[in-house]
Specification:
- The chain is an all-alpha fold and 368 residues long.
- The chain has 15 helices and two strands.
- It has a two-stranded parallel ribbon with strand order 1-2.
- Helix 8 packs across helix 9.
- The protein starts with 6 loop residues before the first helix and ends with a helix.
- 36% of the residues are buried.
- It holds the Pfam family FA_desaturase.
Length: 368
């Protein structure tokens, strides 16, 4: 379990990480520009190839290759391009196509809504119970501090459905359905968000499930099925990467009380303990949007993600310097622990007390 640092140690931790951040920002340049432009070219080429091959859908190898290429295109657009561009990681390039205020991605979730729920709410209040709505996405019990009720017996089913329909879950996230159900928020207050959802959702559905299938003429159904499969692949991949970066065993949550008036160093401390990494090959990291380095991303969300593998050894050394854990592991290990947690937390607390008590005891010790 992570130690509680002294005020001087928190201050020193903040200085160490601020210095690392400034050093990376000062070094940004042509290599970073060339990288993201190359990724965009590859993504567009994969989309063109995928959609072209689907027009040959009467040949099974062509259909499979088309689905594969289109799936990779959607994954790159979602993870390494969309997510990172909308964090402002490439605003310094002054390229309108890669500007966080103007970019729109190939998913039903409107960029403006997502930037509020993710960039602001999640990255400001990371893993603070009652503030970070990404804890369970308003659907799951993913932390023992969330009060159990019989609804959570369906936790594994809700998780499976969220994985399959992940882009729709992300789209609906900003409605804050749990607040609407409790009366804390009025339906009329969501008018702007709903308008953006409607416009973006209709455009995406028409593009993937009407326009491109129609353009394929007699191959309407194979093309429709191909687009559906590519969207499913993107949804499952995004769900797996995001959940492995936020919810495996060892990731800690926090209360509003213990994070009140936190310093810069304490904010960094919370990001490091509230995130986890996934080991893998360079290609794996690219396809994950480098969110396989979730610890580095939570520390520095506006630094180009290609830099995360480069600075990871230094971040790990800083963790060791202050006696802090650096939670990392393979995809199978992290995903297995996430689903183990989802199943365990579906059950009443009396059946999982030994596991949840460890987490709660550590939280209480930190707050003391």
């Amino acid at each position: 379990m992570a130690p509680q640092l002294t005020p001087d140690q928190y201050a020193a931790l903040g200085r160490d990480l601020d210095a690392l951040r400034q050093r990376v920002l000062a070094d940004l340049g042509e290599a970073d520009r060339a990288y993201i432009l190359d990724i965009v070219k590859i993504q567009r080429a994969l989309e063109v190839a995928g959609r072209g091959l689907l027009f040959l859908g009467f040949l099974p190898p062509a259909w499979l290759a088309g689905v594969g290429a289109l799936s990779l295109s959607k994954i790159l657009d979602n993870m390494e391009i969309g997510h990172n561009v909308m964090h402002g990681q490439y605003d310094w390039m002054r390229d309108p196509a890669l500007n966080s205020r103007m970019f729109e991605w190939d998913t039903v979730a409107p960029a403006e809504n997502w930037k509020h729920s993710h960039n602001y709410v999640h990255h400001t209040y990371t893993n603070i119970i009652g503030k970070d709505r990404d804890i369970g996405y308003g659907v799951l019990r993913i932390d023992p501090a969330q009060k159990w009720n019989p609804y959570y017996l369906g936790n594994p089913v809700y998780a499976a459905l969220l994985a399959v329909f992940f882009q729709w879950g992300v789209m609906l996230h900003d409605l804050e359905a749990e607040k609407l159900a409790s009366g804390e928020k009025k339906w009329s207050e969501t008018a702007a968000e709903r308008r953006r959802m409607w416009h973006k959702g209709v455009k995406q559905v028409l593009k993937d499930y009407a326009l491109f299938p129609a353009l394929s003429g007699p191959l309407f159904l194979p093309t429709l099925l191909g687009n559906m499969t590519a969207n499913l692949a993107r949804n499952l991949w995004a769900f797996a990467i995001i959940f492995c970066g936020h919810f495996p065993t060892g990731v800690e949550s926090f209360t509003e009380e213990e994070t009140a008036d936190e310093t810069r160093g304490q904010w960094y401390y919370r990001q490091m303990l509230g995130s986890a990494n996934i080991t893998g090959s360079p290609l794996f990291h690219i396809l994950s949007g480098n969110l396989s380095h979730q610890i580095e991303h939570h520390l520095f969300p506006d630094i180009p993600a290609r830099r995360y593998p480069m600075i990871a050894p230094e971040v790990r050394a800083i963790c060791a310097k202050y006696g802090l854990p650096y939670n990392t592991g393979g995809l199978a290990k992290q995903l297995g622990s996430v689903f183990g947690k989802i199943v365990r937390l579906a059950l009443p607390d009396r059946l999982t007390r030994a596991w949840s008590g460890t987490v709660e005891t550590d939280r209480a010790r930190r707050a003391a």
